[in-house]
Amino acid sequence: MRALIVDPEAPGRLRLGEAPDPIPGPGQVLVEVRHTSLNAAELFFAERAEPGEVIGFDAAGVVVAVASDGSGPGVGSRVVGFAEGGGFGALRAMDTADLAVVPDGVDLGEAATLPVAAGTALRALEQAGPLLGRRVLVTGASGGVGGFAVQLATLAGAYVVAVAGSEESARGLSELGADEVAIGLDTVTVPVDVVVDTVGGDQLVAAYALLASGGSLQSVGWAAGREAVLPVGSTLGSPAPKAIVSVYNGGGLTDRHAQLRRLLDLVAAGRLRVPVGWRGPWDKIADAVDALGNRRLRGKAVLDVE
Ligand SMILES: NC(=O)c1ccc[n+]([C@@H]2O[C@H](COP(=O)([O-])OP(=O)(O)OC[C@H]3O[C@@H](n4cnc5c(N)ncnc54)[C@H](OP(=O)(O)O)[C@@H]3O)[C@@H](O)[C@H]2O)c1
């Protein structure tokens, strides 16, 4: 099959090439992939994967062979799903527990952005507990996870503070529902109940300091690639515990189908927008990697398999 394969000589270490066709296991359908999406995590894994490997978490397409155990949707169904690898291939064997049927009217390319980015945002916010009337701060709000976190927190009834790195990357965050948009954290002074942190480093430290008593920082990622050094004593003194909680939305979770179902229903109802900052044929992967890797991407990158 054709696939975006890891090539240490290619820009972004990914190029269109050939890879063996996947062989589905008993609980897997075979999907003809029509779209995939690029996440920050794939840049990380492209640096570490072996030449020729097919990475990629998200993929949306059409079922071309049913699962031999009888689970999952039939041939011709439009589906989207997650797996740890294989999303950048023209064919993908997908666990039926890790995919969902895409409703009519939802663009398959937009659906391809949901498993990692929107799924992680949803998981982070749910871990934080009820959000109605609470103050939620999202760092890296211009990014893939961040753009969905802003919207989902708004839908849940929170007052949302969206933090971006520049005026340019802050554009469009109010339209996603943010009540306040801040450039960096220096101007944010009112305590918040929940932080969804995708940046790490100094922003994690500053956001933790803003947490109200009993609040939680949901640690999604470390986009800044910098360590976070908490000042001495900063974790002490709050009457109720202030937590730093890790967020995990990778393989091995049992609620992926239900999570995707909910996200797709929100998109189908027009209540959740997919902020697409880059879309193009998959042979233009170098452009997408460049935009994401150099912080010029706002929202998600969709790769069309052509
Ligand atoms: N825990 C999990 O299961 C899970 C799942 C998905 C993603 N993640 C992690 O979460 C993080 C965000 O993922 P994503 O896909 O949303 O990434 P993304 O689209 O690149 O968004 C990250 C945002 O962070 C901001 N940022 C601040 N400093 C940065 C720096 N030095 N370099 C790059 N970006 C910087 C950027 O916004 P500004 O330019 O506006 O500052 C960017 O929009 C990554 O570390 C990823 O690996 C974890």
From TrEMBL:
GO molecular function, one term: oxidoreductase activity
InterPro entries noted in UniProt: ADH-like_N (IPR013154), ER (IPR020843), GroES-like_sf (IPR011032), Lipid_raft_assoc_Zn_ADH (IPR052585), NAD(P)-bd_dom_sf (IPR036291)
Domain Enoyl reductase (ER): residue ranges: 12-303
SUPFAM superfamilies assigned to the protein according to its UniProt record, in alphabetical order: GroES-like, NAD(P)-binding Rossmann-fold domains
Protein name per UniProt: Zinc-binding dehydrogenase
